[in-house]
Amino acid sequence: MTGTSFYVLCGLWALVMLAIFIQAIRLSYRIEARSPDLTNRSGFPRNAMMFHAVTNMNVARDQETQAMRRRMNRLLLIVLAGFALLWAGVSLVQSAE
Questions:
Q1: Collapsing DSSP states into helix, strand and coil, what is residue 28?
Q2: Residues 47 and 40 sit within 8 Å (Cβ to Cβ)
Q3: What is the pTM (predicted TM-score) of this model?
């Protein structure tokens, strides 16, 4: 694989992974808004409570919220698989050279 095509492929991969991760963050905020125990009442901005949403801690138990949580988990697994595939691909290319 030529140098230019490798960089273009890595750039496209990064954009796709970033877009999927942003979707997961947006879902995390929606889950947080639907869960009374995770609602931000401090008035100060804070990070998404993704750990709580992934582990189902203090998350509302209704069907819609749990479906959103499962979708967020799938998106995060896709990102993890994307990193594993990139690592495997780079290792394969390096071993072939």
A1: helix
A2: no
A3: 0.86
